[in-house]
Amino acid sequence: MDHGIHFRILTPRGRGAVAVIELTAPVMSILISQLERFFVSSSSAGLTDAPGGRIVYGRWGAEDVVIVKCDQRHSLKLVDVAMVPHHSTADLPAVAEIHCHGGVAAVDSIIRDLRSLPATPWQEGLSKRSVTEQLNEALIRTLTRQTATWILRQSDGRLDRALNRILLLCRSPEEPGNISSAIRHVEELLRWRSLAIHLTEPFRVLVAGPPNVGKSSLVNRLVGYDRSIVYDMPGTTRDLVEALTVLDGWPVLFVDSAGLRQHSKDTVEELGINSVRSAASACDCCLVVLDSTTPSSDATMTPVDVEDDSGVALAAVLNELPVQLPIAVLRNKSDLNPTASRTIAEPTTVLVDKPVPVFLTSAKTGEGIAQLSSWLITSLIPETPDQQQALPVGRPMIASLEQLAELLRQSALDVGVYPLLKTFSF
Ligand SMILES: Nc1nc2c(ncn2[C@@H]2O[C@H](COP(=O)(O)OP(=O)(O)O)[C@@H](O)[C@H]2O)c(=O)[nH]1
Ligand SMILES: [Mg+2]
Asked: In angstroms, what is the span from residue 226 Cα to ligand 2's centroid?
């Protein structure tokens, strides 16, 4: 007889109000003794005294949870009733449910604890998530109607078929051409990696530049509502750091570099560079804002001279950006500068060692904002697939495909492909 506790997550992964983890064990006393290693009941009566079906409030580490001891008959749904017509309820496992906060972090920390229990087999079959489940999770996390439509299209079977085709080719690696064909199919899915990631996560646009040039005002303009707090006094920014909007059906999150300062309790020197480094490496695009009325934005300026609003030299911020990342310079406050040339400025190489486009903008009048928005969209999504294209959905699937591509390229099929393929569970 299996004496272990089995558990599985009943609710879809992703954001939700409540997540439910179901546990089973041969008898309730085993289940309770293991649960009580982590669970502290809020009332004097613990789990042992609680009648079946009643909820027991308490803490699980840092999490508020409730635990429900379920009636044994509840577990009938766990087994195929038709297969066990002669079982008495005494043969059925004891069942309890943990109800916790519906975010991924709470569930992960409880699962980590459960996994640490001795003799607790993790039921791989239940933890594995099917393509359908992964698509459902993506639908929960997705932010716009357009991205939801892309995800829904995947559930017409095309993604299953695309993954199955790869699986079949990998099963017979000795057949001539199978490996190269599998690589081609994996690459065809991964070609849309960036777009696919942003079906469930917004594009991140870093807005950098010295204080008081109009970064917060521009972000407000771009998102169409007042998100950041705008101050007249330089250096007094108490900006909210992030503002989410939808551009052309895609979710876009603007991240104001001024806010990076607030995240750090370090001194300004240390501050900074770490927060800047992580913000810069995680962004998909960078807008460098300068004040078109001050000499600092003319062509003689070098970024070494200018301090970013995060407190770090602008040059250092720009140096942290991945090489291929789209960058644009915004010469803002054009309304105060009626003599500025209205023709689109030549790309400049002053700030970084590649030519980047320059936009003359005004957060006040809106000049240049439409052009900037369309540049943003074409830079973030240079190409869209045709509607029939299968797309990988969710970071776990994308990561598995990347690993698979690597293994296939090394022709290391025997080593790791089979366990890896199982993670798709199709
Ligand atoms: N005339 C004009 N003023 C602007 C423009 N953009 C920002 N400002 C003003 O410049 C000051 C600083 O703006 P803010 O957005 O807080 O700059 P930040 O420090 O870069 O975030 C505020 O008084 C804004 O009203 C603009 O395009 N035109
Ligand atoms: Mg600001």
From this structure: 12
